[in-house]
Amino acid sequence: MSGARIVSARIAAAHDGSAELVVTLGYDNGGTADVTLDEAAGAALMQACQASDLEGLMGHSWQNVREALTTAYNRFQNGGTQHA
Length: 84
Description:
This protein has 84 residues and is of the alpha+beta class.
């Protein structure tokens, strides 16, 4: 899985009407997987990749996606219920 990279990204509507970022990871064996990030995780990914648009995400490691999801998850720790 070390070679997994972002091969595409798009904006989608969440069930509550907010925007989500859907990134497709491409694996060394040719497989792909979609990962959906909520607004906070999407913003964290954009910042981690220093991307100003979706094209700027292409080619970045899946590890940036993992870190963005962790960042978004951690905003709810310590009893917080923050919203993005």
